[in-house]
Amino acid sequence: MSQRYLVTGGAGFVGSHLVLALLRGGASVTVLDDLSTGHEAAVPKGARLVHGSVADPDALGRAFAEGPFEAVFHFASLTLVGESMREPVRYIAANVAGGAALVEACIRHRVARLVLSSTANLFSEPAKIPIDEDEAIIPGSPYGESKAMLERLLFWADRIHGLRSACLRYFNAAGADPDGEAGEDHRPETHLIPLVLDAAAGRRPPLIVFGDDYPTPDGTCIRDYIHVADLATAHLAVLEPLRTRSVRYNLGTGTGHSVREVIAAAEAVTGRSVPHTIGPRREGDPAVLIAASDRIRRELGWRPRFPALETIIAHAWAWRQRNPHGYR
């Protein structure tokens, strides 16, 4: 019998790529998603979709009835940093309540392992760059705060109930499935690379670059972009250590690229210009965020297969060319 896994938020960007990786490995996958931000068409064929929220006891019951599960992967949450600054109560209440309900269900159904989709937004004031797992957690938004609270909840769930957990702090997820079976389609879109590609394709107005006066070589913010397929393999890699202990890892390539470098790389990949204008800085945007992923490399042997920015952009561009309207 194939191993069974539950993926909450499996109709979303990173979640759907993890579902693909599990299915390709021969696993049986149940997806729990309320489709408020995800897309039913993004759920890979072969996965079972349970339509509902992690905060809904009935939906959780229907999802766990598909078990027993070897592990649960938790992606389902509200994720827009800017929106969380406008609606802090909604973000913290929804993300923490939903996560707590899921953790309680895992304990009740005797699931031994849970993998949390966490965030680099835990680190708004890093003392050093690249950022490692020993960096002080100072969330940069209510969204980041909600993930920090879930990480603490999982600490106590392990200590008291033995629920092993992996908290994976993503930096900037990007790209698309190299075989073209999944891609990125947020509504609204807030990630830089799809915004750049849509501007190049003429599908949206010129890109706004938020600030060009940062203390970086070209004045624009620098971020660490990690391929979504590499994030999926990291989720698979942590399953084995979770048999004996909980883990926390920062996930990135260790290399940063500025907004202007992303634009230049996109122009090289697409052969099109990227129209853009310079706008004011966004409140709370750090100048540089780069991950130190040495710990997961050393302990688990994980390595990004697609670290090059041009490759990440090329995969994203290929998917958007085949799917100009996303999953619609």
From TrEMBL:
Pfam families: Epimerase (PF01370). InterPro entries: Epimerase_deHydtase, UDP_G4E. The keyword NAD applies. It catalyses: UDP-alpha-D-glucose = UDP-alpha-D-galactose. The keyword Isomerase applies. Pathway: Carbohydrate metabolism; galactose metabolism. Keywords: Carbohydrate metabolism, Isomerase, NAD. Residues 6-252 form the NAD-dependent epimerase/dehydratase domain. Its cofactor is NAD(+). Belongs to the NAD(P)-dependent epimerase/dehydratase family. Homodimer. This is UDP-glucose 4-epimerase. The lineage of its organism: Bacteria, Pseudomonadati, Pseudomonadota, Alphaproteobacteria, Acetobacterales.
